[in-house]
Amino acid sequence: MDLSLLSRLNEERAARRAAVLVTDIVSGRQRLVLEAELAIDPLSGVLSDALRMGKSGVVDTSEGKLFLTVQAPIVRIVAIGAVHISQALVPMAQQLGFDVAIVDPRTAFASAERFPNVEMHAEWPDVALPKLGVDRYTAFVMLTHDPKIDDPALFIALRSPSFYIGALGSRKTHATRVERLKEAGFGEDDIARIHAPIGLNIGGISPAEVALSILAQITAKLRLKADGTRA
Amino acid sequence: MLASDDDLLKQAEDWRRAGRAVAIATVVETWGSAPRPVGSHLVIDGEGNFMGSVSGGCVEGAVVTEAIDVIESGAPKLLEFGVANETAWQVGLSCGGRISVYVEKVA
Fold it and tell me: Mean pLDDT across chain A, nearest whole number?
């Protein structure tokens, strides 16, 4: 592989843009197809399918047997709330290979001392989120327990293509949340996108255990098909 | 942090820019039970240092040896590994699967 090609691939990844590296594994010939060029590529259909599945693999094409290295953007978790659970969630999420950003307008919570190694936005969600460029590779976790902060973020999340939306709180808390969402004009399909109570049910009690259950649920949402089988 | 296979490609670029000879090995096909999925990378330098995995430990040694050949010749290779006693390879996958690994030099 040309170093310049490898650099382009890494640049696209850093910019959260999808790309597919096409390799002829017999001749060694390679080319990089960027997200923006996908529609006009001769192999457009095959490449788009591979990208949608997020899966690298060998394909038989009019150009012969090719290997597609599919590079989908890194999943980013946007956590609303610089709370105790978020402190546990950050290093675990980073270990799993996720990017993390924290949003909390309360500066006493959103301090560098409490969160030394993570992107922090000490702003209201409606100020911070538009700047983050929310895409379908974004997961939202609402952790403040405070509707004044969680709800505006939830509104933005529900209007976005985000693949995961979770909200902390008991069934009772969620029922009152659902009422507020309905009043704001959201329908059943929107509300069904929200995972609440948040996380897989593993009986977690400590902040780290709750973070684990949230990250497990995000991973499942990412890796499993709707029927629960492997994608 | 090298949690994903994409991070390994960044590692490969960094090693190359630091002046090291580098090869990238990629799992391109698997049959049956295989320890690492298609798209997994092993990044190897000219000294035999490596990061990542293509089989979780079963065949990495052989891939590193082949990668050093690829670094010297510059020509890519397609390697196949199967159950040890059914192939010409000295190493194999204990899980009974078969994998195909593409090894290329970063030029």
Answer: 93
Q: Is A192 left (phi over 0), alpha (psi -120 to 50) or beta?
A: alpha
Residue pLDDT, tens place only, A195-221? 999 999 999 999 999 999 999 999 999
Domain that holds residue A61: 3-71
Nearest residue, CB atoms, B13 vs list A6, A58, A67: A6
Q: Do residue A109 and residue A54 come from a single domain?
A: no
Locate the chain A residue with the closest alpha carbon to B6: A71
Q: Which of A1, A55, A96 sits opposite B104 (nearest CB)?
A: A1
How far apart are the CA of A173 and the nearest CA of chain B, in angstroms?
Answer: 36
Q: Are residue A63 and residue A86 in the same domain, yes or no?
A: no
Cβ neighbour number for residue A31 with a 10 Å cutoff: 13
Last residue of a domain, one of A28, A47, A71: A71
Q: Which residues of A touch B75 (CB under 8 A)?
A: 28
What CATH number does residue A219 fall under? 3.40.50.720
Instruction: Name the residue type at position A164.
Output: Y
User: Which of left, alpha, beta for A119 (phi over 0: left; psi -120 to 50: alpha)?
Assistant: beta
Classify residue A230: in a domain, yes or no. Answer: no
Query: Which tens digit of pLDDT belongs to each residue from A92-130?
Result: 999 998 999 999 999 999 999 999 999 999 999 999 999
Q: Mapping DSSP to helix (H, G, I), strand (E, B) and coil, where does residue B44 land?
A: strand
A81 and A66 both lie in a single domain: no
